[in-house]
Automatic annotation (TrEMBL), chains A, B:
Every Peptidase M20 dimerisation domain range: 192-352
GO function terms (MF aspect): metal ion binding; peptidase activity
GO biological process: proteolysis
Matches recorded under Pfam families: M20_dimer (PF07687), Peptidase_M20 (PF01546)
Keyword Metal-binding: yes
This protein's UniProt keywords: Hydrolase, Metal-binding, Protease
Name recorded for this polypeptide: Dipeptidase
């Protein structure tokens, strides 16, 4: 432990400079205009894995963005840890809301502000540095493999194919992922579940051209109005999703599970104050912790129609569009739910309009075991570095790869994340605390140590 | 009449070239980035009035865009016609839907395609050329004044002030306006009413920043979803507007009025085919003609929230916005209705969000008399040039100035428009038929002739 702390102390500034360099690449996978930047990012990650001591480092081409692979096999008889992360980031807009440029990392009161600071560059890079630390100090206790992809924020479309085709190369005993949050540094926690995702795009078409709202208004259905009515109908008065069959496969938690889940620290006043809202919202009969962790949801991620510029334009628009995504919980299938949504949305379209529904990426929900050697290793590592027991929580986010790994490779995952819900992932002014970054680099070698010990 | 036709024939090409020059100015009043173009347009109009023979031509400055004034007083004892028009145009977007550039007028099968071709450059310029024709052929029978403004498409905010301050200068016996449509060239018509307008912009704010839809989805109200629910509630199941008091002052038509109104040619199959819609929409219990001409309406002109770019972004947006306008009918007041809307919209906002409502420009509805000398002069002019009686109709659009003129100057208006509903006003590929342009130039001198005769 002292050795770990010393190495980090001696290399503190370099660890930060390297992360900053990584954060300066605008590796936005959703927007084609950043293609060359995303590719440069992959090369940078590969170079850093080599520098840290990895062998057979490869930038593996796919139909989309490449996957960076690297490994260090010290002894085939020892357990192998497969580290997964992603070097792509969410779009940065709305840009005007950033205090400092999203791709010019800036430190303000102990926090690194940049797109990807926490999700996931800051977090996966902790593993690269922890690996360097173990190699340099000769304290590697497990074999290690890295698989850092560039399409997580757009649904990891090509990762499944890659994993199927490289099952042998990816063989490991556990997948270790840092792409989730803790309750706080005072209340370290480990996520034991993730929600799945179904992401849809809808287009409602009324007249074949934009019309003068005076000449035609009142006589021709307005697709924006119709889309609003359709979206409004997707939640009932108790905020349950109205898509037939949506909840059919959802498991209700046992009272014990509910109690355990709700025992996690949660201060509603703080929660509301942080978001400047007067009231929380959600499905009647469930707590905020249950709503975000254990219940499926439906959210409008974007909507647009008609004139959205300066001033006034009296137009009756021809089209109205929306992006609508659903978070899924165990037993729900992304494909089934996407099909249900499509069928339902088409069925509620009035005869005045035409509706087109297309599915973006999806991902399956997962629950990770808490009785495994790997989970125990994570618990011990946290207890040693934080001096506190970790609280198991259910995360609201989605990491499609976790389910994929179980299905294709039969390997479980441990979600050892060091972010915070307040890190503003996917929002302007995303940040990652310096403390968390270094704390992660300190904790990860302990995971490897205990995972090796417990595997004996 | 022969003299008129000959003069038009001899100057056909020049009349068109001058209009094209006028149409090339992107005089979009709603968008500040076109400011210098709008100003250049005013100067061009002033020059053309001088060329046509107008005296004391002025580009009158206002707090906004200037108003171009010019006149020709041949004999103070003769009646005076005040021509009103506007040189500003609607924004041209969505640009990608234009077959040819909006500010590069192009002729396709006998039609001029350009933003403003019909609304209102093509129409007011007919008056300038008709005036030139009368001056050149020494057939002026009335004094004439021109007032061409540059803010009609943004609500004529400064025109009211100008009119009040220049009542003496604007003194006239009738206001003549060509900014409306006819049923068709086979069914010439004169609009005898216009709807008023109340244009609102709303902003719904949820959390203080965009959020990760996985981490917060299901526990925090989504302003896009809430805005959709609020907009959905503005029309009931029979498509009546639900704002309390909205219809209180609306007059129901008498059976006679209904019969007269519905006797105007209307082919629903043609109407639907032109717009590629399967069904017309609107208030239960009213015909399309009644819905657009005699009933107030509420339309979403624009809506935007969250991520609207390429691909998928799992964001729970902080804000959702919409532009919503209402067309008003006689007895409704733009100010009253704006206040009603604001009060109602704020009242239906759930406690999870904050709502801001702001009013853009408004305009009052009007009905023009059909028993006046001016209306009869218009009827006779049309009968002579079209060889057919004009059908009185109710227009769905709004020209705020008409009500303003009655209030401030006590002058009635005649709406002698030569456009067609199919001219795609406010839409991509706006057009104006060459036939209508020349037909207007031919008809207007006849109006002056009969107005003078009937005024004796």
């Amino acid at each position: 432990m002292e050795e770990i702390k010393k190495y980090i102390e001696d290399n503190k500034q370099r660890f930060l400079d390297e992360l900053f360099e990584l954060l300066r690449f605008p590796s936005v996978s959703a927007d084609p205009k950043y293609k060359s930047d995303v590719l440069k990012t992959a090369d940078y990650v590969a170079q850093k894995l080599k520098d840290a001591g990895a062998d057979s480092v490869e930038v593996c081409q796919t139909a989309g963005y490449p996957i960076v692979f690297g490994e260090k096999i010290i002894d085939p008889s020892l357990p192998t840890v497969l580290v997964y992360g992603h070097y792509d980031v969410q779009p940065a807009d709305p840009l005007e809301l950033w205090k400092t440029p999203p791709f010019e990392p800036t430190i303000r009161d102990g926090k690194i502000y940049a797109r990807g600071a926490c999700d996931d560059k800051g977090q996966f890079y902790m593993h690269v540095k922890a690996f360097e630390l173990m190699s340099q100090t000769g304290t590697l206790t497990c074999n290690i493999k890295f698989m850092i992809e560039g399409e997580e924020e757009v649904g990891s479309a090509n990762l499944g194919i890659f994993v199927k085709e490289n099952a042998e190369k990816l063989k490991a005993d556990i997948v270790l992922i840092s792409d989730t949050s803790m309750i706080s540094m005072e209340n370290p926690s480990i996520e034991t579940g993730l929600r799945g995702l179904a992401y849809m795009e809808v287009e409602v078409t009324g007249p074949n051209r934009d019309l003068h709202s005076g000449v035609y208004g009142g006589a021709v259905a307005n697709p924006a109005t119709i889309l609003c009515k359709m979206i409004a109908s997707l939640h009932d008065e108790n905020n349950h999703v109205t898509i037939p069959g949506f909840y059919d496969k959802v498991l209700e938690l046992s009272d014990e599970e509910k109690t355990a889940l709700n025992s996690a620290p949660y201060d509603e006043e703080e929660y509301k104050a942080d978001l400047s809202i007067d009231e929380v919202w959600g499905e009647k009969g469930y707590s905020t912790t249950e709503r975000t962790g254990t219940r499926p949801t439906l959210e409008v991620n974007g909507i647009w129609s008609g004139y959205t510029g300066e001033g006034a334009k009296t137009v009756l628009p021809s089209k109205a569009n929306a992006k609508i995504s659903m978070r899924l919980v165990p037993n729900q299938s992304s494909e089934e739910i996407s099909a249900m949504f499509t069928k339902h949305f088409e069925s509620i379209a009035p005869k005045y309009v035409k509706v087109k529904v297309t599915a973006h990426h999806g991902g399956e929900p997962v629950v990770t075991p808490t009785d495994s050697i790997a989970y125990q290793a994570a618990e011990k590592a946290i207890e040693e570095s934080f001096g506190k027991k970790a609280i198991p929580t259910r995360g609201g986010g989605s990491i499609p790869i976790v389910a994929l790994f179980e299905d294709v490779l039969g390997i479980k995952s441990v979600l050892l994340g060091f972010g915070l819900d307040s890190d503003a992932l996917h929002s302007p002014n995303e940040k990652y605390d310096l403390y968390n970054y270094y704390k992660g680099i300190e904790t990860l070698p302990l995971f490897h140590k205990y995972f090796a010990e417990l595997s004996k």
